[in-house]
Amino acid sequence: MKKLFIASFVFSCIVSISSCDFVTIPEQAGTTVDTTTSTVKHKVLIEDYTGHKCTACPPAAVTANTIIANNGENVIAIGVHAGFFASPMTTGTQYLQDFRTTAGTAYDTYFGISAIGNPNGMINRKDYTASTTVHVKSYGTWAAEVAAELAKPALAKIEFSNTYNTTTRILNCTVNATFLYDTLSGGPYKLTAMIVQDSIVADQLDAGVYVPTYVHRHVLRDNINVNGTWGDDLVTGTLVANTVISKNYVYTLPATYPAAGGPSSTVCDANHCYVVAFIYNDATKEILQVEEAKIIP
Q1: What does the pLDDT average to over 3-21?
Q2: Is residue 242 part of a domain?
Q3: In a domain, 268, yes or no
Q4: Coil vs helix vs strand at 106
């Protein structure tokens, strides 16, 4: 899914903070997983909590993209714009865009990411407890955390079927979740599905420099779950191995996010949008499996 040649091309643009004036860039890709002919991989989700006024945040984005380039489709990232540095300006001509989401703000509040400071994030939401902050990982530790997660066996798999009408902008998404073992304890287990958009060119503060044409990667745009932010129930009782649990979501992509338009909005380009879905243990919040697929293959 992720093309390995992004490293030399995209990273050089992001690092060169003065003028990144292109819009066509290699981006993260997404496909349906063929679990009949390949071994199911334990994939890893990087949540990069960021903001366009966060001057120290671009290096974290570079780190996430480097990890993706080194591990291919086994690592998926979402950029969650939340907290003080993500709030748009209401006057002037800079930092007017609003990349915040209801879900992203809720996650940031619950896990206390921006309260500690950005850039920070989570790796599969591991190590969470209500009384500690060890689940919040600085970007310098992400590579090691990801490597440790990749070494674990897959406990579940996710498969997609996406149908998108380019005229009505209606997405019909079916997510099939399968637990591979019946020995899992704890739970209940839930499924979260969200829209992520890549390659958005907009303002960013980078090392004290205003960059009007910064390329924002894998930006969280909205959740498409029936039950919203925290996802839908998969299993609340006994697990049955290899039983497929299907969830269907119908979602209309707006022309812009926020949908109301105006200076705070940025275009929703379906060609750069993905569905990212993950299974997690609602008791511990830890993610068991994650997958993504392009809306328009």
Answers
A1: 36
A2: no
A3: yes
A4: helix
- Tell me if 246 is assigned to some domain: no
Determine the Cα–Cα distance for residues 234 and 50; give it in Å rounded to an integer: 30
Is the pLDDT at 36 greater than 60? The verdict is: no
Q: Based on the structure, what is the number of domains in the chain?
A: 1
What tens digit of pLDDT does each residue of 247-271 get? 999 999 999 999 999 999 999 999 9
The values of phi and psi at residue 210, to 5°, are: -75, 120
Residue among 131, 132, 114, 130 at smallest CA distance from 47: 114
d(CA 10, CA 2): 13
Q: What is the mean pLDDT of residues 124-145?
A: 97
Give Cα 187 distance to the centre of its chain.
Answer: 22
10 Å CB burial of residue 130 (0-12, 13-18, 19+) is exposed
Question: Tell me: the pLDDT tens digits for 269-294?
Answer: 999 999 999 999 999 999 999 999 99
14 within some domain: yes
Closest Cα to residue 78, out of 290, 285, 297? Answer: 290
Q: Which tokens sit at 220?
A: 């969280």
- Give the predicted TM-score (pTM) of the model: 0.87
Indicate whether 228 pLDDT > 90.
no
CA distance 109 to 113: 7
Cα–Cα distance, 270 to 254 (Å, whole number):
10
| Residues near 39 by beta carbon (within 8 Å), at least 6 away in sequence | none
**CA 131, chain centre distance (Å):** 25
Residues spanned by the domain of 88: 6-154+192-231+255-294
Asked whether 106 and 113 are in contact (CB, 8 A), the reply is: no
Instruction: Label residues 221-241 b or e (16+ Cβ within 10 Å = b).
Output: bbbbbeeebbbbebbeeebee
H/E stretch holding 147: helix 142-150
Inter-residue contact 227 to 60 (CB < 8 Å): no
